[in-house]
Amino acid sequence: MKKINCNIIRDILPLYLDDVVSDETKQMVEEHLQSCASCRAEASAMKKDVILPASKTQRLAEAKVIKGIRTKIFRKKVIVSAVTVAAVLAVAAGVYALLALPRSVIPYEESGASVSSVSLEGSEDEYLYCSMDTSKAAGSVCHEPVTVQTEAGEKTVVILYEYSTMWSRHVEPLFETKNEAVTLEPLGSADEIDEVYYGTFESVSDFYEDPSSVLDHAELIWSAQDE
């Protein structure tokens, strides 16, 4: 049999490796490869470069793995986002609490507090109101009239005060211009109240336990005896 030229064999090798040649051609190539080391090396190199297409089962398995990875990445992003939002809210709440919760009592001289009696239309009864300057205040605290025993005898008293916070002093002015404003705090019937004080207190129970300790540090701003 006439020896086949190596160039012809090498041209046929890709088809041979893909198994798309006739049986006669396949036999011819194999006989040549048995006797030609150079073409065998070429065929071996071509086999290494051939990448067989993945089967359907393999592609589905790879797609499932990729989907799982994407799901994990998405969940991780959601968790990171949720943690970030929670951290930002916690910091914001902490900053607001630091600015808004600690209260500083506004001194009586700066509060502009004054008590006046007002008669309601159609009634002879008079009620006491306390007017206060709220331009610097975050709020005010006032309790119902309480009857206490003092050195001067039994009296019905009211105590109140205004307070400011770091928020009201430093943050609110950045968002709005506070004009001088006055608030009226209703105190009760003028016939039932003997004295009104401006001062701090923890709770109404302080009056029952030791009223003098509270009133001694408060400013008397109205007395029924002076009316």
UniProtKB/TrEMBL annotation:
Q: Where is the Putative zinc-finger domain?
A: 6-40
Concerning InterPro entries, the annotation shows:
Anti_sigma_zinc_sf, Znf_put
Q: Which organism is it from?
A: Candidatus Mediterraneibacter tabaqchaliae
Q: Which family does it belong to?
A: Belongs to the zinc-associated anti-sigma factor (ZAS) superfamily. Anti-sigma-W factor family.
Keywords of the record, alphabetical order, are: Membrane, Transmembrane, Transmembrane helix
Give me the segments passing through the membrane: 78-99
Q: What is this protein called?
A: Anti-sigma-W factor RsiW
Q: Kindly indicate whether the keyword Nucleus belongs to this entry.
A: no
